[in-house]
Amino acid sequence: MLSPNKQHDKGAAAEAEIDEPPRHTLTLSEGARPPTELERVFHYLDENGDGKISPTELHKCMTAAGEEISPEDARSAVESSDSDGDGLLGMEDFVKLVEAEGEEEKGRNLRDAFGMYATEGQGCITPSSLRRMLKRLGESRSVEECARMIQTFDLNGDGVLSFDEFKIMML
Question: Phi-psi bin for 138: left (phi > 0), alpha (psi -120 to 50), beta?
C-alpha cells in the first residue's frame, strides 16, 4: 500500500501530466504573435524545412492543390521573385510572389467587369451601355442619369469611361 505522501506525489505527477500541453502542439513564447496565413502556407510549401521554397517544392505542392503549373512555370515564378539569386524563395520573396499574383487577378477581374459594361464594342462605357447593364441588374435609370453618373468619373471630359477611369471609380 502506498503511503499518504506517495499517493500525494503520484496525484501531483498525474495532475502535472494533465496540465502539460501535448508534445505535438506548437506553443508560442509569451508575447509572440501567431503565424499569418501566408506564413502557414510558406511553411507548408517548405517541405524540407530549410526556410526556403524550391521550384520543385512549389510545383509539387501547387499540383497537389489542383493548380495547373508546369515545372518550368514554377521555376520561372521562383526566379522572378528570388531577391538574393539563390534560386529559392525566402519568406519575403514568397510574399512578393503572392501579392503580384493577387494584383494580376484583380486586374483580370476589373477587365472582365469593364467588359460587361462596355457592351457597344467601343472599348468604353457609354451612358447607353451603362443604362443597359443597370437595367439587367434591376436598376432602372435614364440615359441622362447614366451620363451624370459617368461625368463624376470622366476625367478627360469625353462623356464616356475608359478602362483607366473605370479602375479609379472601382477603387
Answer: left
Domain count for the chain, please give it: 2
Phi-psi region of 88 (alpha: psi -120 to 50; beta: other; left: phi over 0): beta
Q: Which grid coordinates are listed for 167?
A: 479602375
Count of helix runs (H) and strand runs (E) in the chain: 8, 0
For the whole model, what pTM was predicted? 0.49
Q: Are residues 101 and 122 in the same domain?
A: no
Average pLDDT in the 124-149 region? 92
> 3-class SS at 39?
helix
**How do residues 20-75 score in pLDDT, each as one tens digit?**
433 333 445 566 777 788 888 888 888 899 999 999 998 887 887 777 889 998 89
- Interhelix angle 143-153/163-170, nearest 10 degrees: 80
Cα angle 80, 84, 86 (rounded to 5 degrees) comes to 85
Identify the CATH number of the domain in which residue 144 sits: 1.10.238.10
Instruction: Check: CB of residue 104 under 8 Å from CB of residue 52.
Output: no
60, 82, 105 - which closes a domain: 105
Burial 97-124 (b: 16+ CB within 10 A, else e): beeeeeeeeeeeeeeeebeebbeeeeeb
